[in-house]
């Protein structure tokens, strides 16, 4: 990155590394939380949930990109086009994690699934992404098969907490 010595630039997260996958892990759980929040509000138009998922992912992505730019400036680095492109790319998985649950909601009318079924399908899709991405991230970080399965199981437990909130917590 411009403004940093080469040794520090190598430490920046890359979208195709284990650290880069963490955006997808975070984004998937964010999407699950959005689905639970929207689903707890009662019946709603599907388009509203699709837009809520995508806009929440976009807002979170923009916040994290801005955070990287802010961190770079605090460290005394420069923020040019290359740094902005890098930050946008490294945080892109947050947005992409919202797409599968949004698509799941969008196709439910074609499948004859009602609004509450759409919420459950989107939640299941988001949590499957959460567990899948965490397992991939662990493997990319060099974890053994057992450690990757453990990472997946821990993230499944976190996802189940979200499901419990959906089932028991009409907040």
Class inferred from helices and paired strands: mainly alpha
Computed over alpha carbons, the radius of gyration is 18 Å
Say how many strands there are.
0
Poorly predicted tracts of residues: 1-15
Protein name: Integral membrane protein
Organism: Streptomyces capoamus
Keywords: Membrane, Transmembrane, Transmembrane helix
Transmembrane segments: 21-43, 49-67, 92-111, 117-136, 148-168
Index terms:
171 residues, 6 helices, Integral membrane protein, transmembrane helix
What does this structure look like?
α2 (18-40) packs across α3 (46-74), α2 runs antiparallel to α5 (115-140) and α5 packs antiparallel against α6 (145-168). The protein has one domain. It has helices at residues 6-9, 18-40, 46-74, 81-111, 115-140, 145-168. Helices cover 80% and strands 0% of the residues. Residues 1-15 have low confidence and may be disordered. It contains 6 helices and no strands. The protein is mostly helical.
Concise summary:
Helices cover 80% and strands 0% of the residues. By secondary structure, it is mostly helical.
Summarize the helices and strands and which ones pair or pack:
Layout: H1 6-9, H2 18-40, H3 46-74, H4 81-111, H5 115-140, H6 145-168
Helix pairs in contact: 2-3, 2-4, 2-5, 2-6, 3-4, 4-5, 5-6
